[in-house]
Structure prediction request, 468 residues.
Amino acid sequence: MKLRHAAALTAEDCALLEAVTGSRRIAVDAGETLVSEGEKPVSMNLVVDGIAARHKDLAGGRRSIVAFFVPGDLCDLNVAILGEMDHTISTLTPCTIIRIADRTIEEIKAQSPRISRALHWSTLVDEAILREWLVNIGHRSADQQIAHLLCELQFRLATVGRATQTEFELPLTQQILGEALGMSTVHVNRTMQLLRNNNLIVSSHRKIILPDLGRLQRFAEFDPSYLHLLSEEN
Amino acid sequence: MKLRHAAALTAEDCALLEAVTGSRRIAVDAGETLVSEGEKPVSMNLVVDGIAARHKDLAGGRRSIVAFFVPGDLCDLNVAILGEMDHTISTLTPCTIIRIADRTIEEIKAQSPRISRALHWSTLVDEAILREWLVNIGHRSADQQIAHLLCELQFRLATVGRATQTEFELPLTQQILGEALGMSTVHVNRTMQLLRNNNLIVSSHRKIILPDLGRLQRFAEFDPSYLHLLSEEN
DNA sequence: CGCTGCCTTGACACGCCTCAACGAGCGTGG
DNA sequence: CCACGCTCGTTGAGGCGTGTCAAGGCAGCG
Prediction:
């Protein structure tokens, strides 16, 4: 559970987390709903493997993805405070997740102020990512948007050991990318071709290869500081 | 301080808040920066009057507004936990604000778990608004986008007594709306004309008049549940 | 009175969407 | 083993939505 880039956690803290996350792993198919809009959930989901998404469904059968969850991410921390869910959480690929009861979280927070703070930090990073997505969608060109999203995913996956400087697995369809970026599948396709032609990325099957990460980041105007992970790695 | 729609606060809680907010009001001109990107602030800003914004500045002199703050809003709660600010906060109109030290907040939270919870709620609502903005910008047409933003502002202003069902003051330029919605000033202008021609809004000077709020909300596919304010008013 | 900020208009180009069809990979079942 | 159907990536053609550039109008203000 390498999510904890927020604060120095003690050995006890880690043991506490281990105890919670050690068991109850659930395998979920792709396309399954974990939490529905309108629900008032009493547990939260930790993604151990696979990719999930926070999304809102709109009129006309469209879907707007507002967040991706990669391994190590908590999907719906804090929702208890707001009451009803204002969105849905679903898996995008086959996932293995861990369900943690609200009560358990509360107990852990009470036992370790450091973990409590780390969880709070995690919420705020989610919000920071949301802000950056807003900038991305609102103010960047399609090619930069995709490049930026790839940079973010590379960075986030790298912090949990699922990406290197030069490549990572990305089992998302172009349709899903389109739902996240607010563009049509066709245009995602053509734009990715453009990136490939410029040798900014190489993609085959579900793997993204980055010939020159620095150049891609510069092209996307990607500045990882919004992820607030710099303190312990870079 | 009517911000507290989150929880039933006791008389003591209110007194506590009064004590903090009763003094130290600062008048700020339009266009002033309250907190800069890269800073590590030790106090936060409460907007008492006027409108402020959270924004990121991009290459080419452009600016992306990712949140509006209306009277009653806390601008930068919690930033302490993240470390450096990843964005800037500025006034859009002349404002009167109250600066509250981090320490003060901590003390209040310690004294009243209800206020602590309400502040947490406030953070989560900010995040929910961000999600809805993402949906708006990514997946709605320009006219719906503007209509939706107006619906949201009407709703939020109404909860603090600054809007009625039929009208409210909106001292924002079309350029500012464009920076928030990711569209050019020219297009904001033409789109607003479209809304006016359809009698969805009437705007004169800095006042927005809503001939039929329900119709506007339906047009914008506006569902206020994401604001999580319904419990005590509607 | 002239300045300045903001709204408004027109013309033109291009990014992006839509519809439609085809191809490649792959699991399934005959 | 091959044929089928499914999902996903890819292409083409055509049209509209939006950005850009440039200019004019209007109101507030010193």
Q: What stands out?
A: The CA atoms of residues 63 and 156 of chain B lie 24 Å apart.
